[in-house]
Amino acid sequence: xxxxxxxxxxxxxxxxxxxxxxxxxxxxxxxxxxxxxxxxxxxxxxxxxxxxxxxxxxxxxxxxxxxxxxxxxxxxxxxxxxxxxxxxxxxxxxxxxxxxxxxxxxxxxxxxxxxxxxxxxxxxxxxxxxxxxxxxxxxxxxxxxxxxxxxxxxxxxxxxxxxxxxxxxxxxxxxxxxxxxxxxxxxxxxxxxxxxxxxxxxxxxxxxxxxxxxxxxxxxxxxxxxxxxxxxxxxxxxxxxxxxxxxxxxxxxxxxxxxxxxxxxxxxxxxxxxxxxxxxxxxxxxxxxxxxxxxxxxxxxxxxxxxxxxxxxxxxxxxxxxxxxxxxxxxxxxxxxxxxxxxxxxxxxxxxxxxxxxxxxxxxxxxxxxxxxxxxxxxxxxxxx
Amino acid sequence: xxxxxxxxxxxxxxxxxxxxxxxxxxxxxxxxxxxxxxxxxxxxxxxxxxxxxxxxxxxxxxxxxxxxxxxxxxxxxxxxxxxxxxxxxxxxxxxxxxxxxxxxxxxxxxxxxxxxxxxxxxxxxxxxxxxxxxxxxxxxxxxxxxxxxxxxxxxxxxxxxxxxxxxxxxxxxxxxxxxxxxxxxxxxxxxxxxxxxxxxxxxxxxxxxxxxxxxxxxxxxxxxxxxxxxxxxxxxxxxxxxxxxxxxxxxxxxxxxxxxxxxxxxxxxxxxxxxxxxxxxxxxxxxxxxxxxxxxxxxxxxxxxxxxxxxxxxxxxxxxxxxxxxxxxxxxxxxxxxxxxxxxxxxxxxxxxxxxxxxxxxxxxxxxxxxxxxxxxxxxxxxxx
Lengths: 385, 385
Ligand SMILES: [Zn+2]
Ligand SMILES: [Zn+2]
Hints:
2 copies of one chain form a homodimer. The first copy, chain A, is 22% helix and 18% strand. The first copy, chain A, has 7 helices and 15 strands. Chain A has helices spanning 135-153, 190-205, 222-232, 278-299, 352-355, 364-372, 379-383, and strands at 21-25, 30-34, 83-86, 110-112, 115-121, 160-167, 179-185, 240-243, 247-250, 261-265, 305-310, 332-336, 339-342, 345-346, 359-360. In chain A, a hairpin with a 2-residue loop joins strand 13 and strand 14. The longest helix of chain A has 22 residues, at 278-299. Chain A starts with 20 loop residues before the first strand and ends with a helix. Strand 1 (21-25) of chain A pairs antiparallel with strand 4 (110-112) of chain B, so a sheet runs across the interface. One zinc ion binds next to helix 3 of chain B.
């Protein structure tokens, strides 16, 4: 009785841009439901107000601008490149903390958690973002990430360092001043723990393919294998958005967010940002710039996203015969942007997605194609010339 | 150098309202990071515009109101209670569909997925919600859920029925007309599959406690055990929001959303809504009314949430000695509401939470206390008397 966009009779040919299907994320072992035919439905959801794009270079009310006063009376230094400070409202506090009482029931478990939360300012200019920083300035940000990862990761009570950026008012981030955070914790959090567990499992149950870099102890690395396959796919059919000599940005096969990107080194197995040589570090800055420029150009707006660096939980050295989940890390970054069709239409993870399984309309291949078509000259700089 | 809200020296007493800690969700085996001290930080995030609360009883532009025309030219019947129709933009389509081609690489797997998406209108009145429906009207909604679960769940190619409601503009749901959905699928989606797997695992590795209802084959049921413990906790210290003779609503120990609720029958092990007797069904309608009224009264607004019913994947009968994950279901509903501190401040799952682990400031006990303090007379009805 209901008319569908196309017949429901069996069809000879499976078309990933027409037929609903599921894809498996091997890093998390979770599925995503892909409903490509739904891209055609009229939009009935919320329209967001685009964020204003013309900002002052210095904002006297910004708690991140040089020389300004933060909550609690701290005064920011007059920094030239990056700056770092402990979050005035940290989610976790330094140890040792008190031990939680014994659980009242085995199903109600409490574990203590200590750590430290740092804020990393990317640049003194209030109005810039990674997308508009020069490469040398992005290199300073990478150096700051290396430094916080080294400092926190070597603290005795720290077993995991999560560096991330949360950008955009629609991500709940009210301050446009370019900055990120680093949360250092006494425990490995859920998602990286799951990823590391699956990376280790893959290494123990697969044989490395010929011509593909090897991981820990010469074993197969899930991400080395995956990215080697992706860079070999014919560009206009694949999921690669941009690559340079050492890094590639792609929309993963199992992407949940419409324009989700996985960014990782593909030429060799690299555990952490401390293992990058100079050329790899420059290439990292280069691809960060290219990805964020393409994002901004996609809808001609300052593109909102959450970004996180997944790597070896801390730089603490392992023994050669060590076989911990930490030993199987392959450095990668996730970009999770909520924008769907324009600067003002966002995707919500709600309803079926919260209760059952994430779902997407646009395929990963279609998203990659859209991002490949974007310029690497930022629209705001293009307009001014 | 940074001043914390309190000293970082070891303290003798662990206080769950002061000290950061992690709690484990045994249904998903995932953690949540609890940072109760952060409730004191000033709000810096996005403020949402509250949704208008005065709506017409009939809206000529609403595609769910009786007699109106939907997308594709379908005309809604002049229904008296509930109404159901197939979604004009279904996320999955009826089978059999074409078989996906073989995978180009073991890490890129595609599985076909078929099914049907139904829309369930709760009531003809455009301006009502579950919170403002009379109990007999809520019973009609439950009957409609039973009917779609029976019809779809008995289709040969359907192996899972997900009934859910997504309510509120800030959840991306643009139409306030009271309605929910049901997605019926050829596969069990990620989250319920994980829950069922953990329920089965619990049954196989635990002995049922004395005086607690038993699950499948007399084995221990994780939810029977958990809820039995919770209803026994002294009310003003616990997580129970409201209970009646058969059902209880509580903020689970491991809640991620600020005012998340788990709603379930606690007197006996019940697999699905088809297994409810008349008294249990009436008690279900009663507690749905009480929970949604308390939600609306919390911030005096039409409270936004996603709700999902988790139960036996389909009513297909099992053999007595069957040992599938399906056999371990215990009927329960999740309410995931994004509102945090008022009708206009929402919680976003972003940054660290997307990249590492969900985090909350308010403890589950504090949230339950706030919800216990709410009236069961809807604020709009209280005002009018
Ligand atoms: Zn690798
Ligand atoms: Zn049970």
